[in-house]
Design a protein that fits this description.
Elements (H helix, E strand, L loop, with lengths): L1 E10 L3 H10 L6 E5 L6 H5 L1 H18 L15 H24 L6 E3 L2 E5 L2 E4 L3 E10 L3 E3 L12 E2 L1 H4 L8 E5 L3 H12 L3 E5 L11 H12 L4 E2 L3 E8 L2 E7 L5 E6 L1 E4 L3 E3 L33 E3 L10 H17 L12 E4 L4 E6 L10 E7 L4 H6 L5 E7 L5 E8 L2 H13 L4 H5 L9 H19 L1
Parallel strand pairs: 1-2, 1-6, 2-3, 6-17, 8-15, 9-10, 9-15, 10-11
Antiparallel strand pairs: 4-5, 5-6, 7-16, 12-13, 13-14, 18-19, 19-22, 20-21, 21-22
Family: Belongs to the class-I pyridine nucleotide-disulfide oxidoreductase family.
Cofactor: FAD
Protein name: Dihydrolipoamide dehydrogenase
């Protein structure tokens, strides 16, 4: 058994792990990056980038079909599923290649390949013939799709988002379980590319939305494109030949059966900590079997182990993983001199059409009576109507105590851009009045944001009065 000693061992060469390695190397000389699978981040290989490629194709088809409202006649729009998927795979492979090349620039002696597992808190076994003794360890092992027991027995008729991007052609039909971020993005894209879609959820959830009115509008809009039951009553899921048969109760309580070519499980993701023999690290764990950690230092309790990215199951988003990797790598290298790192304003975007953006505090996180609300209905917003994208609702929230902007939930056109503006304002601690007193061009969507903020400011003044 070969043995090496290092200052920091980083497990996982994804977005969080790469940032952790690079920042640890600024403070320590002996740092290794351990990866048991292929190089190339989740985002590049099966996440952010290939999904946006599929969405871009779907939006192109959708816009062509909708050109008639502008007096533009586009006849017989045809989707070449094979060509669509070939472009998705080609561009996906390009993104993966770039991510892989960046990883391979790390000195070869710092890159270890093999499955890592704890022997004790400061000792890792990598593969079968290497033992790594580390002064501190960063867990950055990412996550994988969570597949429910309900789907057992479906065999190759069951797919997760990882599988979709390797399709050679588009299927005829797909049933989607889970109207979260992944389910909504892929489900709507496939529907717009001509795939017959039905979507089931539990508990009434629609993406990350918590504001009941915004959520209701989003649900209604998606239902206009494909059947969506956000609080479904599914009786059984079974395989019959090469089909998936779903037995469910419809809105009228009638029991129905429908057949699909595939079932797409978009039922969340599971942190990859269960294959690390993490019990040998003797870390305090929560009731979900996850290490207890500080999200500002990424330190697991008061130990020499740190956890970053999707592995900690907090916010599985690339920018969050990158920030956490920076903090974890620096603190692991400087252990026991651990210091809090800067955490940005929470920001998440769902690339549906209309888009969903969540900024700062969600309404469901705010204490009743402590905040006021302003809103914008995009059906009356001038720029939205000009573009023919006048669907959606925005809610903005402000604090009665000090007039500061707290957060927003947006279901509306090109919400990714307003989401960023609002995140910058929230992170700077701006008041609603300060946000109103900024330049707004005409005619732009942001004029609607100003209207919502003005309504919010009036509500704050009346509430304080």
């Amino acid at each position: 058994m070969r043995e090496i000693e290092v200052d920091v061992a980083v497990i996982g060469a994804g977005s969080a792990g790469l940032r952790a390695y690079r920042n640890a190397r600024q403070h320590a000389d002996q740092v290794v990056l351990i990866e048991g699978g292929e190089y190339g981040t989740t985002c590049a290989r099966v996440g952010c980038m290939p999904s946006k490629l599929l969405i871009a194709a779907a939006e192109s088809a959708h816009h062509a079909r909708g050109a008639d409202k502008f007096g533009i006649r586009v006849s017989d729009v045809q989707v070449d599923g094979r060509a669509v998927m070939e472009r998705v795979r080609t561009e996906r492979d390009r993104f993966v290649g770039k991510a892989t090349a960046m990883t391979r620039k790390i000195p070869e002696e710092d890159r270890l390949h093999g499955h890592a597992r704890f022997e004790d808190r400061n000792t890792l076994r990598v593969g079968d013939d290497l033992r790594v003794r580390a002064r501190s360890v960063v867990i950055a092992t990412g996550s994988r799709p969570n597949v429910l027991p309900l789907f057992e027995g479906l065999g190759d008729r069951l797919v997760v988002n990882d599988d979709v991007f390797d399709w050679q052609v588009l299927p005829e039909s797909v049933v989607v379980f889970g109207p979260g971020i992944i389910g909504l993005e892929l489900g709507q894209a496939l529907a717009r590319l001509g795939v017959r879609i039905r979507m089931f959820g539990l508990g009434g959830f629609v993406g990350p939305l918590t504001d009941p009115d915004v959520k209701a509008m989003a649900e209604q809009h998606f239902q206009s494109e494909f059947p969506l039951d956000a609080d479904a009553r599914v009786e059984s899921v079974a395989r019959d030949g090469d089909a998936v048969v779903v037995r469910f109760q419809d809105a009228d309580g009638e029991v129905r059966e429908e057949r699909f070519e595939y079932l797409l499980a978009a039922t969340g993701r599971r942190p990859n900590v269960d294959q690390l023999a993490i019990e040998n690290a003797d870390l305090p764990m929560d009731d979900k079997g996850m290490p207890v950690y500080d999200r500002y230092t990424m330190q697991c309790s008061d130990t020499s182990v740190f956890i970053a990215g999707d592995a900690n199951n907090y916010l599985p988003l690339l920018h969050e993983a990158a920030d956490e990797g920076v903090i974890a790598g620096r603190n692991a290298a400087r252990f026991p001199d651990v210091a809090p790192g800067h955490r940005h304003c929470p920001l998440s975007i769902v690339f549906t059409d209309p888009q969903i953006a969540m900024v700062g505090y969600a309404r469901g996180e705010l204490e009743e009576g402590s905040y006021a609300v302003g809103e914008l209905d995009f059906s009356a917003q001038a720029r939205a109507r000009v573009m023919g994208e006048d669907h959606g609702l925005m809610r903005v929230y402000g604090s009665y105590a000090d007039g500061r902007f707290l957060g927003a939930e947006i279901f509306g056109p090109r919400a990714e851009h307003m989401g960023h503006l609002l995140a910058w304002c929230q992170e700077q601690g701006m008041t609603v009045a300060e946000m109103i007193d900024k330049p707004y061009y005409h005619p732009v969507l942001e004029e609607g944001l100003r209207n919502a903020l003005q309504q919010l400011q009036q509500a704050l003044q009346e509430g304080r009065g």
